[in-house]
UniProtKB/TrEMBL annotation:
Topology relative to the membrane: Multi-pass membrane protein
Sorted UniProt keywords: Electron transport, Heme, Iron, Membrane, Metal-binding, Transmembrane, Transmembrane helix, Transport
Gene3D superfamilies to which the protein is assigned, alphabetical: 1.20.120.1770
Protein name: ascorbate ferrireductase (transmembrane)
Highest taxon, organism lineage: Eukaryota
Listed transmembrane segments: 40-59, 71-91, 103-125, 137-155, 200-220
């Protein structure tokens, strides 16, 4: 579950939220690169969740719910929402369909709700009677949540500033061309630089997530 929700899903959401304009005019398996990576990560996450779900039920000999800890309920809710996503995707309207924005918002809402509930469930896992986890588990998870949100903020701010600069430069080039000056082809080059910056930070985030997963599994193994 930790690998799925903390690792794979968080990277997949970042890709879908902030990288739709990256890798322009390039495809992977017949689709845009961001979508191919997003789909791969989410399918891998669902596979991890399915295996973990089965293993937990087998290990616990069925449903074993601690009434004072909502971990199991939250975990089941996140799992249901997670598996609802690919079912919804089967009925995804085309890009130009008038109902496509509705699908996009539903997909966004359900996906983020699933991850939020799952992360909360992981926090509650520490309080399970059989967990044996210490408070460092909370600390590592808290670091993950904070850094994850900071990366979202960074990518969003970077998008806003890049778009504003791009629009200003396009206007300046347009004015220069109207004035008879040769317009320089600087905007596409700067777009490539901005995309490279985003991809570098995505790589940094991926390394961070791997480190978080290693720390979490070390704590789980020591419990």
């Amino acid at each position: 579950m930790v690998t799925a929700w903390v690792g794979l899903v968080s990277i997949g959401i970042l890709l879908a939220r902030h990288f739709k304009a990256s890798w322009e005019n390039r495809t992977l398996c017949g689709v845009k690169i961001w979508f191919a990576l997003h789909r791969l990560l989410m399918l891998m996450a669902l596979a991890f969740v399915a295996v973990a779900f089965i293993v937990i039920f087998v290990h616990k000999d069925g449903w074993n719910y601690e009434t004072d800890n909502p971990h199991a309920i939250l975990g089941c809710a996140a799992t249901v929402l997670g598996f609802l996503q690919p079912i919804m995707a089967l009925f995804r309207p085309g890009p130009d369909h008038p109902k496509r924005p509705i699908f996009n918002w539903l997909h966004f809402t359900v996906g983020n709700a699933a991850q939020l509930i799952a992360v909360i469930a992981i926090f509650y896992a520490k309080k399970l009677e059989t967990s044996g986890l210490d408070d460092n588990f909370y600390a590592v998870l808290a670091v993950f949540v904070i850094v994850y949100l900071l990366f979202h903020l960074f990518f969003q701010v970077h998008t806003w500033t890049s778009e504003r600069k791009k629009n200003n430069e396009v206007k300046m080039l347009d004015l220069a061309s109207r004035g008879g000056n040769a317009a320089q082809n600087g905007v596409p080059e700067k777009n490539l630089v901005n995309q490279a910056i985003r991809q570098i930070f995505l790589g940094i985030y991926t390394i961070f997530v791997v480190a978080i997963l290693i720390a979490l599994y070390a704590l789980i193994g020591a419990a």
